[in-house]
Amino acid sequence: MKKGMGEIERRLFAYVQMRGGPTLRAGDLIAPLKLSPPRERRLLSRLARAGWIVRVWRGLYLVPPRLPLGGKWTPSEALALNTLMEDRGGQYQVSGPNAFNRYGFDDQIPTRVYAYNNRVSGERRIGAVALTLIRVADGRLGGTEKTETADGQVVVYSSRARTLVDAVYDWSRFGSLPRAFGWIRAELAAGRVDASELVRLTLRFGDVGTVRRIAALLDRQGVDARLLGKLERSLKPSTSLIPWIPSRPKRGTIDRRWGIVWNDRG
Fold it and tell me: Where are the alpha helices (DSSP H) in 29-76?
């Protein structure tokens, strides 16, 4: 038994383990442990500070399946994210650097979890798990796939094709251009992403800049004219120009069809 643990702490862990499930809410212990609300709050706060349980949200905690030995306990990334989203009644999908690594676009392992969701915005920490939560409208969620982790958690990721669209759409947040253009070329060449699926998701989740850049790239790659036509019809006539690589000066050859300045040289 962990040093410094008293009778009330042992009863808490025994109760949670008997009940099953890792979550504990404020008020859950009042009847079974015969605690007053103030005493319960002090108990939960003390255990969270000691690292024996983890606070997810106000009044919501995660409790380990076994007492942590020799140090603080922290939940897995999947458990932390799923618990938070279930509590908020929201949907999410992991994207950005985590998806870039998952699909082999980038070998850098992120130290944070980036997730689009329809409930919470900002950065949060749940135990040792750092989250960057990007709140979006319901219509911007989709194009996903699910995977199950070793601890039985089901995690929702942006699909391979949706991740490529996000890399162009959200380039300033993820620092993903111009690298994403190379990823798209490689995925199309290897047959891991279908051009028609990329076009479908671009039209659904991209803005004007995303459509223009992906259309220009596909045009250069010699993609079927019918697919390029779908992208072209989604754009309103305009004489404005955007840079191919947005972080570089807008100098280079002009592509009038897509309103692109090819500033990828020099």
Answer: 37-50
Contact (CB, 8 A) for 216 and 180: no
CATH (domain of 16)? 1.10.10
The pLDDT tens digits of the residues spanning 125-169 come to 999 999 999 999 999 999 999 999 998 999 999 999 999 999 999
End position of a domain, from candidates 125, 158, 191: 158
38 and 16 within one domain: yes
What pLDDT sits at residue 1? 42
- Domain count for the chain, please give it: 3
pLDDT above 90 (res 202) = yes
Does residue 90 share a domain with residue 24?
no
**Pair 29, 100 in one domain:** no
Task: Dump pLDDT digits (tens) for 160-173.
Answer: 999 999 999 999 99
Which is nearest to 94 in space by CA: 112, 80, 110, 114?
114
* Confidence at residue 209, expressed as pLDDT on a 0 to 100 scale: 97
Contacts 24+ apart (CB under 8 A), 249-258: 255/216, 257/216, 257/219, 257/232, 258/212, 258/213, 258/215, 258/216, 258/219
Q: Is residue 256 part of a domain?
A: no
- Residue 65's pLDDT is 81
In a domain, 243, yes or no: no
Whether residues 90 and 150 share a domain: the answer is yes
What is the residue range of 118's domain?
77-158
| Average pLDDT, integer, range 89-105 | 98
Strands annotated E in the chain: 23-25, 54-57, 60-62, 92-94, 113-117, 122-126, 129-135, 144-148, 154-158, 242-243, 253-255, 260-262
